[in-house]
Amino acid sequence: MTVLDQVSTIEERHGKASDLAKDAEKTNERRKEAERKNNAFQSLRSKIEDIQSEYETLRKWRSLADAMGVAYDADAIDQLKRKMTTKLKTITETEFDGFEDDQEIRDLEADFVDYSAEIDDQQADIQQQIETRSDELLDELATKWTVLRIPDVGSEDDEQLIEEFQQFLRDHRDGNLQQVPAARYNELSEQYDDIRISFDVVQDEYDIGDEAMSELKKLLNNTQVTLAEIDEDVLKDLKNLSQFSQLLTIQFKEDT
Fold first, then answer.
1. Are 147 and 241 contained in the same domain?
2. What is the DSSP secondary-structure string of 2-59?
3. 135/205 same-domain check
4. Which of 44, 152, 168, 190 could in theory staple to 109 by disulfide, Cβ–Cβ 3.0 to 4.6 A?
5. Of 88, 111, 128, at which residue does a domain stop?
6. Helix, strand or coil, per DSSP, at residue 76
7. Integer distance in angstroms from the first to the last C-alpha of the chain?
8. Residue bearing the bigger pLDDT, 2 or 118
9. Which residues make Cβ contacts (< 8 Å) with residue 121, sequence separation at least 6?
10. Is the same domain home to 140 and 232?
C-alpha cells in the first residue's frame, strides 16, 4: 500500500468516525428532548389529576347549593367544564410524538393552571352563598329547637334531628365538605319538614290566647313581627313562655 493509499484510508476512517460522532450527538440530543418532553408530560398529567379532584369537589359544592336552593353562576361552571373537556380530548387524542417539544406540553399545563384558578373562584362564590343560607337556616332551627324543648311539644328524636341538622350546616358553613352533602342535606331537610309541633298542647298547657298563638307561629316561621301592633295582653301571654322570651330581640328602625 502506498503512502497515498494509507492517507486515503486514514481520511476515510476519520470521516466515518466524524459521521458516527455526529450521529451520536444527534441521538443524544433526541434522547434529551424525549426526556424533557417526558418530564413535561408527567407534570401535565399530575396537574390534570389535581384538576379532576378539584372539579369533583366543586361538583359536590354545586350539588349542595342546588339542594339548598341558593343561586350561583351555573353557566360559568358549565362553560368551564366544556373548555376542560375539549382540552382533555385534544391531549388524549395526541400521541407522545405528536407534541412538537416540551414547551408545547408546558403551554397546555398553563391552561390547566388557569382552569384551577377558575374552579377556586366558582367554589368560593358557591361557599359564600351556602354560608349565608346556612346562617338563615341555623336561626330558624334555633327557634324550632327552643319550641321543641317546651314540655309535651316535641320529642327527643326531634331535638336530636335538629342538632344533627345544625351540625351539618355549621360544618359546611365552615367549609368542611361531606362525601355526599346534597343527599345528606335532602335527608335532613325532609325529616325536619316532617316535625309536627303540637300548638294545641302549647296553647292549653300555657293558657295562651288565639292572638298570641298567631304571633307565636309567625315567630316560628321567622316572620317579622311589629311590636307596636301586638296587644299588651298578647305580649304577656308570650312572656309566659320563658323559652321564647330569651330569643326575642327588639330592633329599632328610623322612619324614612
1. yes
2. -HHHHHHHHHHHHHHHHHHHHHHHHHHHHHHHHHHHHHHHHHHHHHHHHHHHHHHHHH
3. yes
4. 44
5. 128
6. helix
7. 119
8. 118
9. none
10. yes
Q: For 213-221, which contacts have Cβ atoms below 8 Å and span 24 or more sequence positions?
A: 216/241, 216/244, 219/143, 219/244, 219/247, 219/248, 220/143, 220/144, 220/147
- pLDDT tens readout for residues 103-128: 898 999 999 999 999 999 999 999 99
Amino acid (one-letter) located at 233:
D
Instruction: Provide the residue range defining the domain that includes 56.
Output: 21-128
Identify the three-state secondary structure at position 207.
Answer: coil
Residue 21 φ/ψ region, left for φ over 0, alpha for ψ in the -120 to 50 degree band, beta for the rest? alpha
Residue type, 77: I
Rounded to 5°, the CA angle 234-239-245 comes to: 125
Give exposure, 160-175, as e/b (b: 16+ Cβ within 10 Å): ebbeebbebbeebbee
Residue given cell 351555573 in the structure block: 74
Cell numbers 327552643 label which residue?
146
